[in-house]
Design a protein that fits this description.
By secondary structure, this protein is mostly helical. 62% of the residues lie in helices and 9% in strands. Helix 1 runs antiparallel to helix 5, helix 5 crosses helix 7 and helix 8 crosses helix 9.
């Protein structure tokens, strides 16, 4: 089941969403322009490596481009292949504009980064000695999906279902995103993520973070609006 669009209009332009989307695409273009050796160095220098961040390993000096504590942020803008970046940007494009519209541009950016950080930690904490770089916007995007489910569970999502032939239908968000979440949860319990591959645990962590954090951001936005209108 692949989402194509939603029927949830917004009242403002999603500037931050667009900046994130184009930044990820631009960096991916840089990645594919590099040789395999240089792309690997790019990923190790800017990806989030638990063992390095938690002090169990060190990178060669030529790969220390930024402090290891910042790689949890830089890793959100790197991707491992076309399908990786395409799927993340598709979900970002469909669902993020409504969240940005709801909580405001600055708050949305903070929310996005927080979800990404929680997602990365959900993946890393059980395996703090892992030397496998974590990259991708998946964790942060998962947080957006959690927030969308909380805010707009009945919004209609146009999806395409590839089953011998492609056909489309509109389903409520709670079905589309609920199925997505339980799929990630199931895979997180089945996959040996210490060997690399898809970070399903990060997806689950990001989703739950978004589901919980969005409440605080909404209250903060409402409080700000109330103060503005009472002045």
């Amino acid at each position: 089941m692949i989402p194509l669009s939603d029927d949830n209009p917004t009242s403002s332009r999603p500037y931050v969403t667009l900046i994130i989307l184009f930044s990820c695409l631009f960096i991916f273009l840089i990645q594919i322009s590099l040789s395999d050796v240089n792309d690997r160095a790019f990923i190790y220098a800017l990806g989030f490596i638990p063992a390095v961040t938690f002090g169990y390993a060190n990178l060669p000096s030529e790969l220390i481009w930024i402090p290891s504590s910042l790689t949890i942020l830089s890793s959100m803008f790197l991707h491992g292949g076309f399908f990786h970046v395409a799927s993340n940007m598709l979900y970002l494009w469909i669902f993020a504009d409504n969240i940005e519209d709801k909580i405001g541009h600055k708050n949305f950016f903070i929310f996005y980064l927080l979800c990404g950080i929680v997602a990365a930690m959900a993946q890393a904490l059980p395996e703090t000695t892992s030397r496998i770089p974590m990259i991708g916007a998946s964790g942060a995007v998962s947080g957006i999906l959690g927030a969308y489910l909380f805010l707009y569970p009945k919004a209609k999502i146009l999806v395409v279902i590839p089953f011998f032939i492609f056909y489309t239908l509109r389903l409520p968000a709670f079905i589309v995103l609920g199925m997505w979440f339980f799929g990630q949860l199931f895979n997180s319990m089945q996959t040996n993520e210490g060997e690399g591959g898809v970070a399903f645990r990060a997806h689950v962590g990001g989703f739950v973070a978004g589901l919980l954090l969005i409440r605080f951001f909404i209250k903060a936005r409402q409080k700000k609006n109330k103060e503005y209108y009472t002045k």
